[in-house]
UniProtKB/TrEMBL annotation:
PANTHER family: CYSTEINE PROTEASE FAMILY C1-RELATED. This is Ananain. PROSITE patterns: THIOL_PROTEASE_ASN (PS00640), THIOL_PROTEASE_HIS (PS00639). It comes from the Eukaryota. Residues 132-342 form the Peptidase C1A papain C-terminal domain. CDD domains: Peptidase_C1A.
């Protein structure tokens, strides 16, 4: 029988049917289709991540959406780690969130233009000719409490303020107390709009005026409640001041004397940070998060200078709750807004 090839290839419905049949056979046989080599291993990685972090979703649609976010973050982590940076990233417990989602839920600092209103400059003379110690770690000096966890609430500013006050109280009185972030959250002036929680200076102002009790006496509940009356303060501060903006030399001089509350930018790399020194290339943008600088130092191998920063996302994040930020390069805007309590 003679076959007319032109007529055969011109039969488009037949061609489509053949393609569909071949695709079904290929799938049934377990043969790779487009993207199979990439998608399936990533799905397995996602399932392992879900089990590790005890993550569940309300339905398959949400799970599929979160998988796409996880995949994008995993690709970002893998690419960054392969680039030979001075820091390592990981698909940590926040890897199924976009950075915008993450910032709205796990930070809590008011807009940066509000931070500069009513600033008070630190009225001290800093003789930088004397230099500063090569390294400082207030943890080793007993002035830093265990890493805490703010949870899914916009309260980073309260944790930053309290850590600085815990530090100056120990330095002044020789007593390390775990103080109450919840009291600062409940009782100081706060603004909760668009995921932004409050101002550093309002937290310090409240502790200066009313004092602050311990964590045990006023536990953290990750929600704003009515301010409790009749709570006896465990300590107070005499005043607080802000440091000159974007001056890391001044910041180092003050950190050599006490922990400092700072605002910074929690970038995508910051969100997924695992260890090493996060450099300026991995963290640029407007400040949106508050932490506490508890020291500084140098990497022994290459001399890279860093800030030692205490965060409030629990010990599973970063280096057991801490991050090292490259020093003298304005990484994450770490020195743009800095406040210190005065005992």
């Amino acid at each position: 029988m003679e076959i007319h090839m032109a007529s055969y290839f011109g039969n488009k419905p037949l061609i489509k049917a053949v393609i569909v049949i071949l695709a079904v056979i290929s799938t049934a046989a377990g043969l790779p289709s487009s993207g199979y080599e990439v998608e399936e291993p990533m799905k397995g990685r996602f399932q392992e991540w879900m089990a590790e972090h005890n993550r569940t979703y309300k339905d398959e649609a949400e799970k599929a959406q979160r998988f796409q976010v996880f995949k994008a973050n995993a690709d970002f982590v893998d690419g960054s780690n392969a680039a030979g940076n001075q820091y390592n990233l990981a698909t940590n417990e926040f890897a199924d969130m976009t950075n915008d989602e993450f910032v709205s839920m796990f930070t809590g600092l008011e807009e940066p233009n509000e931070l500069s209103k009513g600033r008070e400059m630190l009225q001290v003379t800093l003789d930088l000719s004397e230099g500063v110690p090569e390294s400082v770690d207030w943890r080793a000096n007993g002035a830093v409490t265990d890493v805490k966890n703010q949870g899914k609430f916009a309260s980073c500013w309260a944790f930053s303020v309290v850590a600085a006050v815990e530090g100056i109280h120990q330095i002044t009185n020789g007593e390390l107390l775990s103080l109450s972030e919840q009291q600062v959250l409940d009782c100081s002036k706060t603004i909760f709009k668009g995921g932004k929680g409050g101002r550093l200076k309002n937290g310090f102002r409240y502790i200066m005026d009313k004092g602050i009790t311990t964590q045990d006496a006023y536990p953290y509940v990750a929600a704003k409640r009515a301010c409790r009356s009749g709570v006896q303060p465990a300590t107070k501060i005499r005043n607080y001041r802000s440091l000159p903006a974007t001056n890391e030399k001044q910041l180092a001089r003050v950190v050599a004397n006490q922990p400092v509350s700072v605002a910074l930018h929690a970038s995508r790399a910051f969100q997924l940070y695992k260890g090493g020194v996060l450099t300026s290339g991995g963290c640029k943008g407007q400040v949106n998060h508050a932490v506490t600088v508890v020291g500084y130092g140098k990497v022994a191998e290459d001399g890279t200078k860093f800030w030692l920063v205490k965060n409030s996302w629990g010990k599973k994040w970063g280096e057991e709750g801490y991050i090292k930020l490259e020093r003298d390069t304005r990484t994450c805007g770490v020195a743009k807004f800095a406040f210190v309590p005065i005992a």
